[in-house]
């Protein structure tokens, strides 16, 4: 590739904000930040010709310049110059072309399928890599017609989340045009299905542009989940029917979902970048200012609190602003309703976790983001990484304790009624402080990371051999139970028992205080054949296998969501005080201390607002309940296998599950 310093392009002093490439009257302003660089070159590409222009202005950490006559569609990149040393570790190498960390579109994909290909992107390599390196692209201001779009703004107490992958959700949806794309997500049939389930929000796995990691490229696999983010401002083109229209296709999907009253929450990754560890590629942040962007120890080695090779130093104000600019961009440009932060503990590290750390304080005061739902995965893999219950308002948090305790109660018949009651009533032991409400806990039984519900009741062990890591990857502590046979079977007794356990888990999810999150496909028994780490399986393993006939769980899920909306104690997002929730043993007497510690009973009743009665049978055998006074009407049950004697005030259930009754004079 040819390069020159003397062409038609000229550069003038620029403005430090907004960062990135900003088309303006008469040209484009370019701005990028680096604390330790001595100089930054803007590289403009016209065909095979590269023009290098030193950014003439510096305002603190921001290097900037204005290029007259530059237009939308211009390809560009940066080269950073510096020395390193003096208490920080730098990898400045002007031979490596860097994309803009504010890129809204990128031309090209970096390939490193072998050591030879990786060498072109490694920080220690002395060859110029502009010929193979991707380039950022100047994009125009959006002219998308949102018409009268309004955010649904669903109250937390009424929120029901559906976690889904854009491609996997619709790739095998029957007779769907543009299956597996943003356009399919906007399809009327897909949206109608979500509405029938009672879903109020879809939580999409990452739609930021991502890359496949080095080890996956070498083995011919790909990063299906998308948590290896390349650009935090660009839409992943691989999910678009027309990659050149990816942004507009996503906007159209958001608009269609909003029209149906469904919010859109994005799973976002601000804990690491696609540059991986020190052996990984230099694509952007590492080359601009390694020590500014990444946490390092005293030996200048990366702190790997993300488990992905590097950890973003969000505590630095430049990085905090970059994250905030990204969030605002998605909220304003795409009308996104909320964000779920992958490995959210990283956001509060300084380097120890601080509940009211600098980034959280910055987020708290932002008027654009104040109305968005914020959800944290409240852990990372560093020391003291598990911080569930310690995030500040306005965050809700994935409740991993709910997942594990409910799985143990039903799958393993733990009989721990005290723990079950704590989780059912909103996990006040975790979230009941600082004015927080039960909705601060996002309850889930399964998520993208782990077994599906069907696999949770079908496998004792993970089966991840297809991932190429000798089944070493993925969680080992799953609290799963195969009910006597590992994997798929046509044994009617085993299948019936699995169905009852799955229904019990679903009932716990939707009848608990807090915010329920359902994994897409769990409502119709979707299986990944025992793979509990499908991150690299972009195929039928992870694409939802839509049933040709209605699945036995689908109507049950709809009924549970409907009942949940009727139970005022749940819909009002209130804690279960003694005046509203009464805990009874199977004999209909208030639970005594000895009842709470009796792990062999495995049964209890929960009376809510003297109107709703939950009969909980945590064992795989029959249970007789003496009901509290009143006439009770069956509202939602897992099967018809129960005997209810009105006159005797008794109800015998014949298997595991939760039976919901309602007082007749209250109905």
Structure description:
The chain is α/β, with parallel strands linked by helices. 22% of the residues lie in helices and 21% in strands. The chain contains 17 helices and 29 strands. It starts with a strand and ends with a strand. The model has no long low-confidence stretch (mean pLDDT 96).
List the helices and strands and how they pair.
Blueprint: E1 2-4, E2 12-13, E3 20-24, E4 27-33, E5 39-46, E6 49-54, E7 57-59, E8 62-68, E9 75-81, E10 106-107, H1 115-119, E11 135-137, E12 161-164, H2 166-170, H3 182-185, H4 188-197, E13 201-204, E14 208-210, H5 214-219, E15 229-235, H6 246-259, E16 263-268, H7 285-293, H8 317-333, E17 338-341, H9 358-364, E18 373-376, E19 395-398, H10 400-411, H11 417-424, H12 428-431, E20 441-444, H13 453-456, H14 492-510, E21 515-519, H15 552-566, H16 568-571, E22 581-584, H17 593-596, E23 603-608, E24 612-617, E25 623-626, E26 632-636, E27 642-645, E28 650-653, E29 657-663
Parallel strand pairs: 1-6, 12-13, 12-21, 13-16, 16-17, 17-18, 18-19, 19-20, 20-21
Antiparallel strand pairs: 2-8, 3-4, 4-8, 5-6, 5-9, 7-8, 9-11, 10-11, 14-15, 22-23, 23-24, 24-29, 25-28, 26-29, 27-28
